[in-house]
Amino acid sequence: MGRDRTAQSIRGQLNALRDRNLIASFAITALGWVGFMTFYGYIAPVAERIAGFSATELTWVLVIVGLGFVIGNMFGGRTADANLRLSLILWPAAMIVSLIVVGFVAPFKWPFLAAAFGFGVASFANVPPMQMRVMKYGKAAPELAATANISAFNVANALGGVIGGAVVDSSFGAGAVPFAAALIPLAALIFILTQERGHGARSVQTLVAANPAVL
Predict the structure, then answer these.
(1) pLDDT tens, 149-175?
(2) What are the structural domains of the chain?
(3) CB under 8 Å to 133, separation ≥6 — which residues?
């Protein structure tokens, strides 16, 4: 009987992964995160070759971007609690904009640093909404859903590394990395809009009222 229950439990969890919304959530994670890794994985050549930072100064560039990660994760959690649907749209859009800004100001040292910080905020603000969407549709098998979502992040990390490396080695060079990094999150944003359409949402005023700091 114990074995039967275990087999049924495993089958039940695997069946939960067949949910269309859950599969879409994994796709949103993978597509949305590729842009992050494409740029962050190759931020060093952009900072050194384009912005003009020295190898020793690169540590502080990463510290500033890392501070953005912390702040972004906090904002992402708050906005996702207030309005998950809007957060799933807001933060990918913000990351795309931040990457484009980084690309344009990359030749200028301090504007690049400020834009890279903004990228850190926008990119890590995506994490809580992505995870919350997975847990929303993966309630029948939360442990398995969470594990599968980590795999989606890892797939994105690998793809981002490949894309970033290809751009750096191409004739476009390191300066094109931020622009290339913005392309796949744009596809992710379009996909999110198709998935979230019709799901309903609270108003933008609710989100702003709950989180005035995001303004």
Answers:
(1) 999 999 999 999 999 999 999 999 999
(2) 31-208 (1.20.1250.20)
(3) 25, 28, 84, 88
